[in-house]
Amino acid sequence: MAFGRLDIFWPDGRLESVTLSGQTVSVGRAAGNTVVLDTETVSRYHFSMTNEHGVVSITDLDSENGTYIDSIRLPSNEARVLDGVEEIQAGHLRIIFTALDESPTAPMPLANNDDTQRIELEEATFRLQIDATKLDVWPAASSSAELSITNMGEETQLYNVEVAGLPRGWARINRPRLEVEPNETANVLINIKPPRRYDNAPTTYPTQVNVYADERPDMVLTAPLDVRIHAFSGFGMALARPFVENRESIRLFLHNQGSGPLGIKLHGTSPSKTVSFQLPSGILRLAPGQRMQVTGEVVPRQRAMLGQPTVHRFDIWAQSQGPAKFMAAVSGKAEIAPRFKPWQLIAAGGIAVSLLLLGIMAFIGLLTPRPPVIRDVTVNSGQLEQGETLILSWVAENTNDINIRVNQAPYLTLPGNSNHVEIDTSELSGDIVLTVQGTGNGETVEASVPVYIYREMVVENFMADPGNLVRYVVTTITVSWDVPGATTVEINGLEAFTNAPLEDVYGPTGTIPGVSGVASGPIILALRAEDAVGNVAEDTFTLTVSDAYCVANTQVTLREGPNPNNQQIGTVPSGERVIVDAQDGGAGWLRVVLPSGVYGWGERGFFTCDEGFRVEELRAILDVPAPLPTMTATLVPTPTPTLAPPSPTPIIVPTVAPVATNTNSQ
Question: How far is 154 from 636, CA to CA, in rounded Å?
Answer without folding.
Answer: 50
